[in-house]
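User: Quick sanity check before I run a bigger batch. Here is a single chain. Can you write out its predicted 3D structure?
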Amino acid sequence: MPIDPEKLAKLQKASAKKVGGQRIKAKKVNKSAEADDTQLQNTLKKLNAEVLTGIEEANFFKEDGKVLHFNRVGVQAAAAYNTYTFSGFAQEKTLPELIPNILPQLGAENLSMLQKLAEQFQGSQAGAAPAAKEEEDVPELTEGETFENDVE
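Assistant: Done. Predicted structure follows.
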């Protein structure tokens, strides 16, 4: 098999410039939530955080009117560092869903939100009453028309 000397010279010249091998990309390691949790626990140990007992649930009121509700919450506190952690499963709920249980927890800042909720409830009740009244009325019959004619 004859080899063209010009092509061979070009290949040798090009290969002389290449030193080393092809670049190997570093593998991207995804952090797991478990690793983050252990790192957080280690940091809390350094801060001497203590577990607070007797807290059954926690509610965080957001500005948009929704509530982050933690049921069976774990609370740790490092008061010297003004650090508090709440761990558990958080559910985002609306205020009307939690009203009976959280009335004692509501403060002055949530009073306006509670008033708006009461106005909405009254408005929906007032709007429902006239609609029900209209449905109860019996339509008037005109002369010459019967129900049987409308059915056919």
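Residues 111-136 form the longest helix (26 residues).

User: Great, the batch can go ahead then.
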